[in-house]
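Hey L., structure's done. Input below.
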Amino acid sequence: MNDQVASITNLKSTFLDLAVRYGPRLLTAILILIAGVLASRWLSRLLLRQLHRLELEPPVRLLLVRTAWAICFGLFFIMALQNLGVELLPLIAGLGVAGAGIALATQGVLSNVVAGLSIIFAKPFRVGEYIAIAGVEGTVATITLFSTTLTHVDRSRVVVPNRKIVGEILHNYGRIRQLDVSVGVAYDTDVNLPLQVIAEVLQANPRVLKDPAPFIQTASLGDSAVAIAVKPWVAVADLGAATGEVNAALLEAFRARGIVIPYPQREVRLVGGAAP
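Output:
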């Protein structure tokens, strides 16, 4: 019984000694960390307001704000460790060894980060533009350090790792697309009439952009029809709807003007006399 009392007494005295010796330092370190969190938030908000005045992409602003937060909080964290009497040199050496091991274990992740930084600062495409890359295509929804998210026309999302983008052939359509419609007219048709009708149809469609001007041109002389290329420009989001509207409007307008869209035809001739 006396041994248990003595152990409890020694434990209390040890705890009180540690509290007296390190308590003020620990409390000061906690206060420093709290001040660091508050100062980092204030600096981040101030920097974010200043960056909104510049024409920077949202990922770039987010990266700069997070970097500023990390640097500011890291300085306060170092101050807290120094206040506790922690030796920083052995800690830095240990972190360096651990960092090397982590870097080897996460090569794919780090390559995505490096590629993400290249995309953010080189700006081969921006949020809202339509691109085709690595066998997929869609409108750029978000750009992060690790991946780029595309929204497809079927409302699905395609997440592409950034390392799959850098170094690949990129087709950036921008924010507009060009329709590729072809219509055929009979050879005995005055070609100026269908060209005029097509121009009127495109002019009446609100989805078709006036600038750049639509491309309307005789494309080829086919076996049974004169092919006319109709290539107006529309917003990326209107590509599907505009294609159907233009085709339907051209069909109705040609019928109303009496312009014939011929069926494929083949002329077959029998050469030689009748069989005996």
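The chain has six helices and ten strands. The mean pLDDT is 80.

-- N.
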